[in-house]
Design goal:
Rossmann fold; two-stranded antiparallel ribbon; single chain; alpha/beta; 207 residues; seven-stranded mixed beta sheet; binds 5-O-phosphono-beta-D-ribofuranosylamine; 9 strands
Amino acid sequence: MTQKIRIAALVSGRGTNLQAIVDGCRQGLIDGEVVLTITNRAQAGAVDRCRREGIPCLYVDNRRFSSRESFDAEVASTLRQARVDLVILAGFMRLLTPVLIRAFDGRIMNIHPSLLPSFPGLHPQQQAVDHGVRFTGCTVHFVDEGVDSGPIILQAVVPVLDDDNEESLRQRILHQEHIVYPQAIQLFAQGRLKIEGRRVRILSSSG
Ligand code: GRF
């Protein structure tokens, strides 16, 4: 039997991606286990999900820290103690500093609701509507020191309809997020992701 990877999630919001990943682990779609969740928002919907699922959820109040670096150092130390193999950002509303990124280099993933490099940053669905693109989607990528700029692992495409608004588009993209994020994590768990500069090569399952 293959060894399961130990996954930690950083969350600030509803946690629907976290839920899809927890479900993927339980259903055997991901050879992994979410061993820890860290949130900087005590009221996040994700906290209730953790409680229901029996996943330890640690609240780290960023206001206790004098700098973003000291917050990240505390998070990195907690993740190391939990012997985490992969860190997933699932609606974590903070930019990571090099302190955390370098501690888990090549082992932090994020999902962003646009086809990067289009529409990085805030309100990507509104940006897509405003720009008038016909297609948008979501991107799973490794985290580097830029904003939504790291090597791309998987993407999924959705159409933008004439009467779409930010919310309708958000829902359509979210549905795809819940499919591709678990897939990307499983590729990582299988050791099939090789970062080569900006590109991520997906190795065949036979090795
Ligand atoms: C998603 O849209 C994701 O792409 C972005 O933050 C949102 C998180 O949603 N990074 P949820 O908390 O997983 O429902």
